[in-house]
Every structure is written in structure tokens, then in C-alpha cells.
Amino acid sequence: MDALTVEALLSGRAVPIRGEEKSAIGKVPVVGATEIGPLGLAGDEQADRRVHGGPDMALHHYPRDHYAFWRTLKPDHPMLSSAGAFGENISVARLVEDGVCIGDRFALGSAIVEISQARQPCWKQGHVMQWPEMVALIVKSARCGWYYRVTKAGTASSGDIITRISNPFPQWTVARVFSLLIKGEGKSEPEALEQLAGLEPLSGVWRAKAAALLGR
């Protein structure tokens, strides 16, 4: 994989989106260098740490390439004019789900990050975009994005280079794992689920999904 340019690093604050329900899905670009630690970008928040954030979901990467697809469905949607509509911390072009794998490590500025799982969309995505059908469309299209854990803290800026430095499990693309565990295709592939349940770089939550589909 060629070295690619980080178009934007983004962070957000938790704000009310429905009554007292809060979300930090709204992200804005960070100016200048920012620290990247075990819990992600300095200053970035998650409203509900039970299901968002933590070491295995420290950074959310959503492919910039997918914005063109979403604009074909909603050409005038104001949130699709710039990065951040999907709650992503990292925006990069030419890096998509069928080209990256669980366990892939990347140099990001002076930090090193590792893909831990795909991103499973929730209702907040459709709510903030006033597009309730979007969650189902993300699942159907597998345009899901993914999460990184941080294996080496460092700093990064928009305009820095992101480079893959290891690819230990090329058979487990993010697209394939998402299809098996979220789209339901794993029901007909128990051997694949068995392997995923023991795949160490996959987050514990997603290993548990594989085990649950096996009936454990």
C-alpha cells in the first residue's frame, strides 16, 4: 500500500441530540498537531463509554471515498460536503474496507495504530443526519468504516502520512468480518466464525459476537 495523506483529523464533544441523550458523533477538524493516546485523540469525547470509545475503539476511521456514494443518494445533504458526518476521527482517501484487515498496523504521524474491528452503526447516525434509513443502508452496503487501537502513543496532524507497516491476517478484511458478523453471513460459515472467535487482534466484543453466532 502506498503512503497516503491524512486529509483531516477530527474530534468532537458530547452534546444533547435527543432530549437528554448525548452524542459526540459530530466531529470537526483539529488544527495543528494533536496527541494520540490509548483512548484516542486528545480532547475527543464519547457520550456512552459502554458502547463507544475505550482502548479497542480509540480512533474511528471512515473512508473519504464513500462520501461520493452517499451524495448520489442525497446530493444536497449539508453534512456530506466535508469530513466528519460519520463521526470519524480520521479521513483518508483510497483506503476502504476490502483493502484493510483486522490486525493491520499503520504508522500515523509518530503513533502506531492497529485495526481492531469494523464499526457497527447505531441509530444516532441516522438521527443526526435526519436520515433514519441510513443505518440499514450502511449495513447493506458494508460502507462501515473501522476502529483502531493505539499500540504506540504519538502525535499527528492533518496532512501527515499514514502508512501500513504490517498485514498479518490478509484473509480477514474489514469488509469480510463485517459481512460475517453484522450482515449475518456467518450463519452459513461456522468455520470462519470459529476462527474469528479466536482471532487475537479482533476486539473482545467482536470475538464474543462470533462466539454467540456459534451458539456459545
Descriptors:
M1 Pyruvate Kinase, Domain 3; three-stranded antiparallel beta sheet; about 20% helix; globular
Please give the structural blueprint.
Layout: E1 4-11, E2 15-18, E3 21-23, E4 28-29, E5 34-37, E6 40-41, E7 59-61, H1 66-73, E8 90-92, E9 105-108, E10 111-118, H2 123-128, H3 134-141, E11 146-152, E12 154-156, E13 161-166, H4 174-181, H5 190-197, H6 204-213
Antiparallel strand pairs: 1-4, 1-8, 1-13, 2-3, 5-6, 5-12, 7-11, 9-10, 9-13, 10-11
Description:
The chain is α+β, with helices and mostly antiparallel strands. The protein has one domain (4-169): M1 Pyruvate Kinase, Domain 3 (Beta Barrel), CATH 2.40.33.20. Helices cover 22% and strands 26% of the residues. It is built from six helices and 13 strands. The strands form three sheets. Strands 1, 4, 7, 8, 9, 10, 11 and 13 form an eight-stranded antiparallel sheet that branches. Helix 5 packs antiparallel against helix 6. The chain is globular. The model has no long low-confidence stretch (mean pLDDT 94). One of its GO terms (molecular function) is pyridoxal phosphate binding. This is MOSC domain-containing protein YiiM. Residues 28-165 form the MOSC domain.
